[in-house]
Amino acid sequence: MLSRVRALLRGGGASAIADKPVKAAVVSSDAEALTYDATNDTPCPPGPILTLDACAVCGGAESTKVSGYNRFVLFDRVPDAKAPIYNYSLCHDCGVVYAKQRPAGERYRWLLERFEETLGRTDIGSPRPGKFALSSAALSDDERAQLRRMVANGVFVSGHSGLTRKDYLPSLMNDRLASSMHVELLGSLLPLEAPRVLEIRSRLGSICAMLERLYGASCSAMTIFENQRFLISEVYGFPASCPIDFDAFTIPFEGRFDLIVSNHMLTHAVRPRAFLAAVRERLLPDGCLYLYNEPVEGEFLDRGKSMFNTLNPFHLQTFNQASAVRALEANGFKVIFCTVRDDLFLAIAQAVDAPNTSRERMSDSERSRRRSAYRVANDLAILRVPEHLRAPFAKDWDEIVARSLDAGVATRTKDGRVKVNRVQTDS
Ligand SMILES: [Zn+2]
């Protein structure tokens, strides 16, 4: 029993829980071995697939296509032929890069249930040390009882207590420590006086717990998975709900909030304008949204990661810092603080009365610089696609090779293959 609970917590995967239906998403972090095993699985719903004719974030009409594909293009087998095709486009207005073609409704939900655990950035879905894994499997009564016994020993269990890891959940303390940066920023920059707080996509309720301890906050939390929801309500007693609908996003609690904390939501939202509107209308006057864990494009534009590998099928929007600020301003927020750490954007943004109609568009020079950078990143991502998966790029292959060799971003090896040059990074 205990091992089953631990497997569930660790995301030992559905296979660790023999009496539950297996949802088979076999994914490896090794780009050579990405695959999806459809055996015993229900088929991927053919729709809905949205085709956007304007920017998902600001409504701007003009854009430039910068990449055709998400990470599924690196898979041997995919849920269906349309799954890899997202047509990422750079909005000329706010500068966000958004998937022009994107799954919604039951199709998005089907993908999320199978691939969220395996394709998400591990440092976003779960705190790193003593990884608390996310699992969409429901908890049995026995598992609930076992978790209750473990959390009864508390969040901060001393190393000399004599308790073993069978007796408590190290993930609780690890998440508190991993989340403390956010509370340091919020406490330093906002006047927090017994605020009413909502945490969206909370991992284990840590930000709420710290805000309650330090500032007398009253808190509610929304989680993706039932085991998170259960633990937050058991450990901290906060009202907690799950799952989160990334398409028709709603807040299942009454009233308005002084602070809404949002983890990795803007990137995932099927309808980011509706998401931001739903958040904004639940903020009290002068209330703030705190966004964090929103991946920025620097990872593949500046630091040599494959763009295909980075843009997994839930990454429907990406941006640089300036674009993220314009995106928030286009949706009735005034950014009062933002920064990028480890290629992740975070911001505190205040709800303002009317959308800023005089906001600035992305400048021509920024647009032209980013279009070029995306072209290079797309070329290099294509050059790194394993040979047996290159069919979609056959038509353009020679041209891409010539362009990349000319630009000095790739080299031809002695045996005739083309190798992407390593990027010198500052991080
Ligand atoms: Zn836009």
Would you spell out the secondary-structure blueprint of this structure?
Blueprint (H helix, E strand, L loop, with lengths): L1 H9 L38 E3 L11 E7 L15 E7 L5 E3 L1 E3 L1 H15 L2 H4 L15 H11 L18 H20 L6 E5 L5 H10 L2 E5 L3 H10 L4 E2 L15 E7 L8 H9 L2 E13 L2 H4 L5 H4 L6 E2 L2 H9 L3 E9 L2 E8 L12 H20 L13 H10 L3 E3 L5 E3 L7
Bound molecules: zinc ion (ZN).
Account of the protein in words:
This protein is α/β, with parallel strands linked by helices and 427 residues long. The protein has three domains: 2-119, no CATH class; 176-351, Vaccinia Virus protein VP39 (Rossmann fold); 364-420, no CATH class. It has helices at residues 2-10, 105-119, 122-125, 141-151, 170-189, 206-215, 226-235, 272-280, 298-301, 307-310, 321-329, 364-383, 397-406, and strands at 49-51, 63-69, 85-91, 97-99, 101-103, 196-200, 218-222, 240-241, 257-263, 283-295, 317-318, 333-341, 344-351, 410-412, 418-420. The strands form four sheets. Strands 8-7-6-9-10-13-12 form a seven-stranded mixed beta sheet, with helices on both faces. Strands 2-3-4-11 form a four-stranded antiparallel beta sheet. Helix 8 links the parallel strand 9 and strand 10 (283-295). The two termini are 44 Å apart. It binds zinc ion (ZN). The site of zinc ion has 8 residues, from loops.
